[in-house]
Fold this sequence. Notes:
- This protein has helices at about 5-15, 60-70, 70-80, 85-105, 105-115, 120-125, 140-150, 150-160; strands at about 25-30, 35-40, 45, 45-50, 55.
- It is mainly α.
- The chain has a 3-stranded antiparallel beta sheet, sandwiched between helices. A two-stranded antiparallel sheet has the order 3-4.
Amino acid sequence: MEPVSLEDKRTIASQIGRNARGVIGIPRRCAYGYPQVVTVYPLLERKPFPTMYWLTCPFLFRTIASLEAGGMIGRLEQEIAANPELAKQVVRAHHSYIEQRRRLLSPDDLAYLEERRMLPALTQRGIGGIADYSRIKCLHLHVAQALVDENPIGRIILESLAQHKCPRNNILCASL
């Protein structure tokens, strides 16, 4: 995971339309060198923040938003229910996410969360804080994980896309 430079912070703010909170690194850049996925610390303002991987790429964000609007979440949830192997892979992705998120926490933060009974929000809830692994909260979160790790839902989404990056003549982040 790469550290976040001041220029990266500016780019990320332009990508998402506000200053990003808790960003601790960039595990994935796009083909043009811009942040594509950022890692967010799991504790923000002393409260659990379950979204560890955040998709910042405006091209992928827009493309995936259109899939969500077209009902892709419902279709994928049906596929998870009908396909036991996919369901197992999804559970593994959630468990991997939980473990990676836990490893980011300092011993002091773990003690703080445990003392206040907030630790289960980060150790028992999966991608995006979801408790029911047969459900999908947001496709963007699954794609973000798939771009830096294994995630079957994110992989399915990425495989369904005609393009994974901006066309050379219209690099969105270059004009931010």
